[in-house]
Amino acid sequence: MIRQLSIAALALALSAPVFAEKEFEDHTNMMDHGDGHLMDMTGGMVMGQNTDILPGGCDRIAATKEITVHAGHKYAEKFPGRMFAFDVQEYQFEPCTKLTVNFINDDSVRHQWMMHGLPRYLYPKGMFHLEVTGPGKISGTLIFPPGDKTYLVHCDIAQHMEKGMKGQLKIGKGDGDLPSIPGLTAYVIQDDYSDSNAPESLTDAVVEEINQMKEKVVGNDSFFSGLTVIGLAIGLLLAPILARKFKGMSVGEVVSYFVDLSKSIIDVVIKIISWLIGLIKKQ
Questions:
Q1: Contact call for residues 149 and 111 (beta carbons, < 8 A)
Q2: 33-85: pLDDT as tens digits
Q3: In terms of residue numbers, what domain contains 252?
Q4: Do 163 and 263 fall within a single domain?
Q5: Could you give the CA distance from residue 58 to residue 40 in angstroms, rounded to a whole number?
Q6: How far is Cα 215 from Cα 222, in angstroms, rounded to an integer?
Q7: Quick one: CA torsion of 123, 126, 128, 134, rounded to 10 degrees?
Q8: DSSP-derived secondary structure for 223-256
Q9: Which CATH number is 70's domain given?
Q10: What pTM was computed for the model?
Q11: Which helix (H) or strand (E) holds 71?
């Protein structure tokens, strides 16, 4: 018994780090892999770091700025239907500004603050990227190119941007607003939780389709009889069944099938008539 308790205690002690929530970490001691790529072994990464090289067209650093960006689920609460967000959705700076971004992840999952479209001769793949796994802070620096442009900043983890973690960064006057920025611009695809456009049943869908066909053929003053409408409805309902029935069959095989079916129906009708005649004769 004592041995079993000892084993259980040892197992709990070894598994405690797995279940313990990760503590906040300030990622300051990162390895430099060259080309502005820095990372450590605990989930921190910077890509596109540039602290001193001026982009073409910049004679000097116009301004030196520093911002702190928070990322997390709680910042999406003010945007209905969103799951993640940054604490700020829009930034604006002068061209040729040197910017240091302090990126703080307030969640226990991985988040990123990423920009695309920067000059590729200076920023590998035209990208500046900050990443933190779990609660923590990481900092990176870049120098903006000249000109008026609007950049997308977002988290590239699957579905994080789609669920709200994005914003826009304007250099100079920018070159317009980006769509679907939470709290700033209209969503390209609006959320719709209503069922007002959905048919209530298959019957409603069939009737609606028949009415549309009717409008196209004869307009509102229809010569369609009730039997015609019923026939169309039956045809629409049977079409998927017949399509599965004759899938892979040639035209000749389909014709042969209907000939055999007709013979069977005629035989049944003849038998019924013969049976009725027999009943009449007995009377």
A1: no
A2: 999 999 999 999 999 999 999 999 999 999 999 999 999 999 999 999 899 99
A3: 202-282
A4: no
A5: 32
A6: 8
A7: -130
A8: ---HHHHHHHHHHHHHHHHHHHHTTT--HHHHHH
A9: 2.60.40.420
A10: 0.62
A11: strand 63-72
